[in-house]
Amino acid sequence: MKKLFIFFVAAMLLTLPACAGTDTSASTDNSAPEQSETAEVQYDYQLKAGETTEVYDVTFNQMVTVTVDPASTRDGSIDLRSGIFFDNCTFNGGLTILGDYHAMVSLGAGCSFGDGSVVTCKEVTPGAAKETTMDDNFVKVFVSCEDVTVETESAIGVVTEGSDVTFNGTVYSKQEIAPDTPFLGIYSVYENDDMTYVKLAISDDSVETLE
Predict the structure, then answer these.
(1) 58 or 18, higher pLDDT
(2) DSSP letters of 149-188?
(3) What number is the average pLDDT over the span 174-178?
(4) CA dihedral over 82, 121, 94, 160, signed as positive or negative
(5) pTM to 2 decimals?
(6) Sheet architecture: strand order including 170-172
């Protein structure tokens, strides 16, 4: 539970607009029950604004899909942020995240990915990625486990508290890029029709853009 608490504190911290340096706080307590070993494995998760879900100790042998409802999350307030937390889960078929804004997908330190299994992020609303700016509340993938590969053509944020992350073919090392801050964020965003990447050093009360 201590680790989970740390994750949700981090999730609330990261609701800061990417270019802001102000503090904020929010919490949600309506988490879903843990899955038991005997429960049927669920592969599709739907998130609306304000919904949080926790998933533990599951081996997924097929693709897992998390869909973030655009109607309720696009203009949702900070305290209605949606999120899903996986820990001690094995993804053998990959993880797909469908969403435009306002959600946190967290991968705990106990998660692992099978050979060739990646996290794929896609927009729900056609054209949303090219209209997203750094002031928007991106979908974020929060990574604490090893060997995570993220692929996307959308505007998203990938945040790590220490583990190296492969993002669209490039390996990002927090130890090398932002060793003195709690989190490294890499955001994909469009400038005209070209995707660019912004690196952020994220602490408890500030966000600094890195070269």
Answers:
(1) 58
(2) EEEESS-EEEEESSS-EEETTEEE-HHHH-TTSSEEEEEE
(3) 96
(4) negative
(5) 0.83
(6) 44-47, 64-68, 95-98, 119-122, 148-152, 165-167, 170-172
